[in-house]
Design brief:
CATH class of the largest domain: Alpha Beta
Radius of gyration: 20 Å
Helix content: 25-40%
CATH topology of the largest domain: Rossmann fold
Strand content: 15-25%
Mean pLDDT: 91
Low-confidence stretches: 344-349
Number of strands: 13
Shape: globular
Number of helices: 13
CATH superfamily of the largest domain: Glycogen Phosphorylase B
Distance between the termini: 31 Å
Length: 384
């Protein structure tokens, strides 16, 4: 065992950068451990808004750029490129550990690269369930390759332990994306209107649809959502889908749907700062993104979750689960807009979930961690 001195952190897109942001900032302020921020994947892609520029605008130093997403994306080959790129970075930078978030295929590739390089892995958001997406399998695979598990809820901690992980390696920190609730530097709606070049007349609905990779047809599901939106008067800000198979079909639907509409805006990437500023002013969140389950409820925003992509995740706050059927989506959206914003949560979860900012708990866990050298693990048998 030894002290963690140098930590590599991989971010591959908006889905994990908003989660990592507060921890990266705190680590940068303290310098213990030293951090090498590696940015890759969708963050570097023009197709997905080149959000790396937004990371740098936050004042963070990017140590490496890892461009492994092709245009158009090709999951198999992009995964292979991610494994090679992260493997090369590990060999050259020689960090003591690698921090990863969540459940995507490129993240799983990075976990394999670290395992082959014998570099211990710190994993955020393990133990969760998204039964409608192949990400579910990747998340659990990453858990088994990881050595320190920083989870968001006691139920997820129990699931990680159920997978044979030692008790001491599983720490409940909360959902770090919600640290954005405590920011005092978010732009106003007037500033957002200037940045987006569009009036944001209330009520505002924030929409994100990703492919349900183990479920329905993405074009049909998105059309059902679009048809419901056409029936409900609101200002719609729609963010682009991720690189999963089916994302191109969703992109096609939204570009065609928003083109003739003055009340709809389609953006490749908002960035964490603009996203959270918009979330504070949003009347409802619509779609099937994890942000609707993990983060929007903590901001006091009603959520209409479409389909089964997020099936298995714990619901907090005002969340309505509906099938990808136009009438059901319309009814739930009208209910959400009529409900108004409930009282903002002071954190996510029940009484047994830590409250307040999450980043300090993550940093404390990293500093207290006895780094396994070599990174061996023992499977813990737990008999019911």
């Amino acid at each position: 065992m030894s002290e963690l001195r140098r930590l590599a952190v991989l971010t591959t897109g908006r889905q994990d950068y908003g989660i990592l942001r507060s921890t990266l900032e705190l680590l940068g302020e303290t310098g213990q451990p030293d951090v090498a921020l590696w940015a890759g994947g969708m963050l570097l892609s023009e197709r997905f808004g080149r959000a790396i520029d937004l990371v740098r605008a936050d004042g963070l130093t990017v140590s490496r750029e890892l461009p492994f997403v092709s245009d158009p994306p090709d999951q198999t080959r992009d995964t292979a490129r991610a494994l090679a790129a992260v493997g090369d970075a590990l060999a050259e930078d020689r960090p003591d550990a690698l921090m990863l978030v969540g459940d995507r295929y490129e993240t799983a590739a990075a976990a394999i690269a670290a395992t082959l390089a014998r570099v211990p892995i710190v994993h955020l958001h393990g133990g969760e369930e998204t039964e409608g997406a192949i990400d579910n399998a990747f998340r659990h695979a990453i858990t088994k390759l990881s050595h320190l598990h920083l989870v968001s809820h006691p139920a997820y901690a129990a699931r990680v332990r159920q997978m044979g992980e030692p008790d001491a390696s599983v720490i409940i920190v909360g959902s770090p994306g919600t640290d954005n609730l405590y920011r005092d530097d978010l732009p106003s709606i007037a500033d957002l209107e200037k940045r987006l070049g569009r009036a944001l007349t209330p009520p505002i609905v924030l929409v994100t649809m990703h492919p349900t990779t183990l479920g329905g047809d993405p074009r049909a599901e998105t059309n059902a959502v679009a048809e419901a939106m056409a029936r409900v008067n609101a200002t719609y800000v729609i963010t682009a889908p991720n690189t999963d198979t089916g994302g191109t079909a969703i992109d096609d639907v939204w570009r065609a749907w928003t083109a003739p509409r003055a009340n709809a805006l389609y953006v490749d990437a908002l960035g964490a700062t603009n996203y959270w500023a918009l979330l504070r002013a949003t009347a409802a969140v619509l779609g099937n993104s994890s942000s609707g389950i993990l983060e929007a409820p903590s901001a006091g925003v009603p959520v209409v979750n479409v389909g089964d992509r997020q099936q298995g995740r714990i619901r907090m706050g005002w969340v309505r689960d509906v099938p990808a059927e136009t009438d059901r989506i319309e009814a739930a959206l009208r209910e959400a807009l009529a409900a108004g914003a409930p009282e903002r949560a002071s954190g996510r979860g029940g009484a047994d979930v830590p409250r307040g900012p999450v980043a300090p708990r993550i940093v404390d866990a990293l500093r207290a961690w006895d780094l396994p050298c070599p990174p061996r693990k023992r499977f813990v048998e737990r008999v019911p």
